[in-house]
Design a protein that fits this description.
This protein has about 160 residues and is of the alpha+beta class. It contains two helices and eight strands; from the N terminus they run E-E-E-E-E-E-E-E-H-H. Strands 1, 2, 3, 4, 5, 6, 7 and 8 form an eight-stranded mixed beta sheet that branches.
């Protein structure tokens, strides 16, 4: 099968740079598969699992947003907002982070509701701080739910070996 060059970059590191035969990526328009000689395009990535097929085996990388660029020369570059190899995901840590995020969201929503009811003791500043905490916590919750989904999905496929 013909191959093409793939590079995956996050703000923290280069996660992957090799020749591959196929990529399946989550985009804002749905999941797409890319083979050699794919039409050039740019698309926004969604949160999900990026499945990379090489001549021997496949590799899974969890991506949490970003962009994918397919160039006319066949090179594919993924600029991920955040990404990690599946073997870097700790399922128990993700579950604990989800619980903490849900508790923090409930607390922030309760604070916001109390403010909306006009409780004088809440200041305008506290309301905005709670709003920021809520937004950040919801983003963290979504990332950890995606981690858990990816780990559980790919652990069900027996016999597949993931490169580290």
């Amino acid at each position: 099968m013909p191959s093409f060059h793939l590079q995956i970059i996050s703000p923290k590191r280069i996660l992957f740079e090799e020749d591959v035969v196929e990529i399946t990526a989550p985009t804002d328009k749905g999941e797409i598969s890319i083979l050699a000689n794919h039409t050039p395009m740019v698309s926004q990535l969604s949160m999900g699992d990026l499945v990379i097929k090489k001549e021997k085996g496949e590799q899974i990388i969890a991506v949490y947003g970003g962009f994918i660029n397919i160039e006319s020369n066949g090179t594919v570059t993924i600029l991920a907002d955040n990404a990690e190899h599946i073997h870097e995901i700790n399922e128990q840590s993700a579950i604990e982070a989800i619980k903490k995020a849900e508790e923090a969201i409930a607390k922030a929503k309760a604070s916001r509701e109390n403010f909306a009811k006009g409780q004088a003791e809440l200041s305008h500043t506290l309301f905005h701080e709670d709003h920021m905490i809520l937004a950040e916590t919801q983003a963290e919750l979504l990332m950890n739910l995606t981690r858990l989904k990816i780990v559980r999905k790919h652990h069900q496929h027996h016999g597949i070996k993931y490169d580290k």
